[in-house]
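Weekend entry, working from home. Most of the wet-lab plans are on hold until the incubator is repaired, so I used the time to fold the two sequences that have been sitting in the queue since the last round of cloning. Logging both here for the record. First:
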Amino acid sequence: MNTLFAIILVFVGCCSNVVFLELLVRDFPGCGNIVTFAQFAFIALEGFIFEANFGRKKPHIPLSNYVIMVTMFFTVSVINNYALNFNIAMPLHMIFRSGSLIANMILGIIILKKRYSMSKYLSIVLVSVGIFICTIMSAKQVNVEKGATEEDGVYAFMHWLLGIAMLTFALLMSARMGIFQETLYKKYGKHSKEALFYNHCLPLPGFLLLSTDIYKHAVLFSQSSPVEIPVIGQSMPVMWFYLLMNVITQYVCIRGVFILTTECASLTVTLVVTLRKFLSLIISILYFRNPFTIWHWVGTAVVFLGTLLYTEVWSSVRAAVKGEKADKKAE
């Protein structure tokens, strides 16, 4: 029952979160910092009350280790959201972030000296090819759509290229953080909810560096047209409503993933998250009419095929089917 509930939370929370994020970004492409700050502040407040018991509960993992993890987590979150300022379409943003498998494997080989099976290497090649196809097609669209003159087109392309570089850096940094987190869990035990709280609480002072941009967008949000909130019947600026819903759905999404990690095997978690990403991508394309060519579809299919191959879903399904057949014969 808990597993089904968690899966529902992941799909409803994460897919809704993508919708509200795109609604925010469409009107204010540079609002990534205020979105990140709101998400961090909400999760930190919830964790301070229910996990840290108003600061009375001592952490299982030393704070010095959390400081290192938090520095990486804060950097990844800010850069991922800020990259949307550089002509990065939401579908490409989601596809690119699906390349975390590549980054994890590369750093796993370099840092942890891991070795993988041929199917794992094949899956990474598929994911890389899929992301490459989508990125190249998006680059062509930037050249065509941005600017009437050749000089404007070159500037738009370089601007977009900087966004791609930021996403690449965030991808590698996220993989490095995952490896660091894995080593901490092996040493001190798995404390996911504690890590969730400290990852969102400790970076809050860092937002002082972004306070000017956050304040500017807070003013812009307050000037947006009012909308009446269902049920309570009160009105508020529509952008603040979108931000509130984005924060709530982000929390629902994270809670769903947390429950899944405690209830299910990592394979199940990866499969659910992968399917959720695919559904979010479809919603973004159809609902917001984002430009998506046949080559984008090909690239997307290759990315998800590689992801499913990496998680060994096919072999697990075959094993389950064989197990059922064996049980029937025994009967």
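Second, folded right after the first finished:
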Amino acid sequence: MQDMSTQASNPSVNSDKESSATVMATAQPSRLKYLSLGVLVVQTTSLVLTMRYSRTLKEDGPRYLASSAVVSAEILKIFTCTLLVLMENNYSVRAMALLLKEEIVNKPMETMKLAVPAGIYTLQNNLLYVALSNLDAATYQVTYQLKILTTALFSVSMLGKKLGLYQWLSLLLLMAGVTLVQWPSESAGEQKVLTAGSQLVGVVAVLMACMSSGFAGVYFEKILKETKQSVWVRNIQLGLFSFVFGFIGMMVYDGRSVTQSGMFQGYNAITCTVVALQAVGGLVVAVVIKYADNILKGFATSVSIILSTLISYFLLNDFNPTSLFFLGAVLVIAATFLYSYKGKPASSTFKV
């Protein structure tokens, strides 16, 4: 009783406890913010480099099927999201089953809305394998930032969002930067001629991926804002459709190879790493959007571009930088920061 009365009569003690509790509460989200950004940098850079390495690695046996890797990534994503939903329901299998039945089975129209972005995401994931089979990691990373432009345009047309002056300027910088990155240089003229066909295929694949990423991302954001479902439940729905579309695509285009050598032909440690990184990519972005602001997310993208360029040049030896590339890369990085300046970007999606 004496201690309690002493604390009551001494407001400084209570004030100190409240301030320390506030500091601890503030510090935890801050740590999560930078931790999630660090994970995003590692995931993005690792995915691009390992995917590029896996598609150019010379092997004795058959190379793994890109369509198979897409299907495997969706299976792993569904499994991961199911575990997260189980955690949200205090590890009660029954509660999780009732929730999934209520949100997926008993709401067929809501579930069917995810078929559109799922089909587009499946196409996009296959296009990324095509792009990285024909482009070096650095060029791919910079060019793929055009998804900022497509996302912004779809956000304006589909969500009615308004872009500020800084956003429009950043989009102009972005287009200029990507143009410089793709601009042929005389010093690399002979190499460009030899690989002109594959270079064109890679660029077209990236551009199509940017278009699909922009539309599907904004469409998915619109669905998320219209409902109060868990992000992980929505990703399970998305993953189920993506698995179906991916499996159909695999059997249509690679059915003979699957029948002869199996779905997991050519799989090794690198392939499994690519599948795992692709599966967790959208989940990592969801965490980043929750705990970090868009300026820091842009910083993470810029760091990923720089790391991909350095590793592609020094370790993979498949990239010869030019002055135009560096100028274009600087413009793309500057555009990423400028787009996030003074206010949030036009879109905050949960899948890349």
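Plan for Monday: verify the second prediction. Residues 45-53+61-340 form one domain.
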